[in-house]
Amino acid sequence: MFLPCRLLGGKEREHSEPKYKLITNHTARKTFITNSIMPGMNTKTIKEITGHKKDSVFHKYVKNSEECNKLEMVRTWDIIQ
Q1: CB–CB of 10/21 below 8 Å?
Q2: pLDDT digits (tens, 9 = 90+) for 29-69
Q3: DSSP 24
Q4: Residue 59, Cα to own-chain centre: how many angstroms?
């Protein structure tokens, strides 16, 4: 995977890194939280698993995809009709 150009020694250089070197614990935690919320897992359960105490910190890890938002709209509004 190529990374954007960076200044190294005063010169722009492009370098590559294997993807596994770019994935951190934070990335894995955020992915787990988002993928657990999408099918409807209880947020309280997720918080217990991940060790979050405060909602404000927990919600920094939540990233709803456009697809997830569409599914939620359909699920919510189709029930009402």
Answers
A1: no
A2: 988 998 898 888 999 999 999 999 999 999 888 877 787 78
A3: -
A4: 10
Q: Which pair of structure tokens corresponds to residue 41?
A: 């897992």
Cα 54 from chain centroid (whole Å): 18
CA dihedral for 21, 27, 29, 34, sign (positive or negative):
negative
Phi-psi region of 16 (alpha: psi -120 to 50; beta: other; left: phi over 0): beta
Q: Beta strands of 3-81 (E only): which ranges? A: 6-8, 11-13
Token pair in block for residue 32: 């787990």
The values of phi and psi at residue 28, to 5°, are -65, -40
Give me the helix-helix angle, 25-37 and 43-50, nearest 10°.
Answer: 160
